[in-house]
Amino acid sequence: MPAAVDIKQSSETLPLLLLHRFPSFELSFFPVLKTKYTVLDLHADPPGPSFPILSKSVRVMLCVGPTALTSEDLDRYPAVECVVGSSAGINHFDLAACRRRGIHVTSAGDASSDDVADYAVGLALDVLRRVSVADRFVRAGSWPFQKEYTLGSKVSGKRVGIVGLGSIGLRVAKRFEGFNCSIAYNSRKIKSHVSYPYYANVGDLASNSDILIVCCALTNETFHVINKDVMRALGKTGIIVNVGRGALIDEKELVELLVRGDLGGAGLDVFEHEPYVPEELFSLDNVVLSPHNAVITLESFAALEELVLANIEAFFSNKPLRAEVELH
Amino acid sequence: MPAAVDIKQSSETLPLLLLHRFPSFELSFFPVLKTKYTVLDLHADPPGPSFPILSKSVRVMLCVGPTALTSEDLDRYPAVECVVGSSAGINHFDLAACRRRGIHVTSAGDASSDDVADYAVGLALDVLRRVSVADRFVRAGSWPFQKEYTLGSKVSGKRVGIVGLGSIGLRVAKRFEGFNCSIAYNSRKIKSHVSYPYYANVGDLASNSDILIVCCALTNETFHVINKDVMRALGKTGIIVNVGRGALIDEKELVELLVRGDLGGAGLDVFEHEPYVPEELFSLDNVVLSPHNAVITLESFAALEELVLANIEAFFSNKPLRAEVELH
Hints:
2 copies of one chain form a homodimer.
Chain A: H1 2-8, E1 16-20, H2 30-36, E2 38-41, H3 51-57, E3 60-63, H4 71-76, E4 82-85, H5 95-100, E5 104-106, H6 113-129, H7 131-139, E6 159-163, H8 167-177, E7 182-186, H9 202-207, E8 211-214, H10 228-234, E9 239-242, H11 251-260, E10 265-268, E11 287-289, H12 298-316
Parallel strand pairs in A: 1-2, 1-3, 3-4, 4-5, 6-7, 6-8, 8-9, 9-10, 10-11
C-alpha cells in the first residue's frame, strides 16, 4: 500500500508551486513542500529542463522573505492567480500589478506579531538599560579593573509612542503597559477600539514620547515618516526603536543625530540598505544593532510554515485564504 | 544674611553622620550630605584628626553599596543607633549583631524595585532572543558576509517561575503578564493576596517553568537554593535569570551545565565572587553577563537619595523610619 501512495504522489500528479526567492533564502519547510507539490525553483540546482514550460502554467507562487516581486516577474509567470507571502510587511511586492491582474495576495499576517513585539520591547530595554554594553564590558574582562559604569535610564513609567497600531503595535502597547508606561500612537486613522491617545502627526507624538516604537507598514506615504524633525522632537533623552522597515526612518539623519548626541539612542533591527549598516553606529554605546532578527524564532517559523502551507492548500481547494491582503 | 546662615551651618553644629563604604564607592549625593551633616568618612582624604574621637559618639551610619557591616565594625562605633542601608538586599549586614544592640536598620526598600524588575525582563528577552549576540554580529561587520543566524526562542506565552515574590518578584510577574506568560512562584510562604500557583519546592517550580527568575533575598536558607537538581529540572531549553545575589545559585554547577549544554541559557547580573566572572561563560552565546547593574539608573539613584536623606533626617527628628528592616 505505501508503494501505491508513493506512485500516486509522484511529481507528475502533484500541483505546481513556484518558489520565488533569493538563492540564499532557505526555509526549514521547503522539504515538506516537495512532498505535496511539484516545486518550481529557479534557484534549485538545477531548476530542471521543464522549468520554462511549467512556469508558464503555475497558478500559485510562494514568495520567500524580502525577495522583490515586480510586474516583470509576473509577466514571466502569466498564469499566477495567487501570491503567498511569507512576511508581515509586503512592501517588496508590486501590489498595483497584482491588483491589475486580479491576483490574490497573502502575507504572514499575525504569525510573527508576538515575536516582533517582544523584540521591540527587548531592544528598548537593551538601549535604555545598556544590556549589550554591560555584556561587552564583562566579556572584555573589564569589570575587575574598571569601576566606572554607565548610568542607564529607567524604563518603567516612561511615555511610549507607537507609530502604527496594527497587530504588532497593539502587542507592543500591551507589553509596555506591564511596565506602567503610558501609551500613545500615530496611525493613518484613529482606532475607535482603543483608548490610547491618538496623534494625527508623528512629530507631535514624538514630542510627547520618551520611547518611539516604529512598527507601521512601509508604503509610499510612510517612506521616511521618521524624518529629522520627528527625531529632533523626540530629543536628546528620547530613544527610537525600529522593527518595521529601514526606510521608515531617514537613516542618514538618524546617524547624524546619534553621532552628535542629539538623539538619546536607538534600537534598530532594520536598515535602509540591508545588510549594510552605517559604520558610524558601531562605536556608539547608545545603539543596539540587529540583523533583521525580530521574527527569527523557532515558534515564529513554525507558525509561518503552518500558515503558508494552509494558504497554498486553501488555494487549490477553493477555500478562503488566511491573512489575505486587501488590494486598493 | 547668607553669611549668617553659613556660620550657623558650620561643621561644629551639624549632626554627625558616619559613612561606611568601600573607598571606590561614591554616590552622587555625597556632596549634599556634607551640607547637612558632619560626615565622618574613614576613606575621605584625609579622614581628619577628629575621626577617632567623633566616631565613638556617632549615632547614625550610612552603609553604601555592598560594604559588609560586621559585629567588629559596630564595636568600633559603640554609639550607633541606626544603620541606613542603601541597597535592597542587606545580606552583607550582621543583622543579629544589630538586633542584639537594639540598632534600627533600613534598606533601600522599593526604591529600585521597578528597575530591577525591568532589568530581569530585559535579561530574559536578551537571552531568549539573542539581542546581545545580534549586536555583536552586526558590530563585527559580519552581516553582509554571513547569512547564518541563530534561531531565538519565543518569549510570549512561556512559563515564568519566580523565586521570591517580594516587591521585585511581583513587578517581574506583572511585566511578564503583558507578554501573555503564565506565572508561578516559590517563596518561604504562600502569598494569600496573589492567585499565581505556588510551589513550596524550587525544583518543582523549575520543572514547570521555561524561564526561572531568581530575585529572593540571600539568607542562610537561600544560599545555593538554585542547585544542580533545580537547574536540571529547568532543563536544556530552560533559562535562568539572576538579579538577586550571586550565591543564590551554585555557580560552579551553573557553569558546568551551561558549558555542557544541559541548561538552555542564563542572564546573570550577579555572581558569587564579584567582580570575578567565570571565564568559561565568555565564549557562550546563550548567556548575557552584566556587572551588577540592575539598579543602575538615574531615576533609581534619585529615589535612593531621597529615601536615604529622609531616613537620616527622620532619625534625628524622631520620626518613623521608612523601609525599616524587621530584625528577628
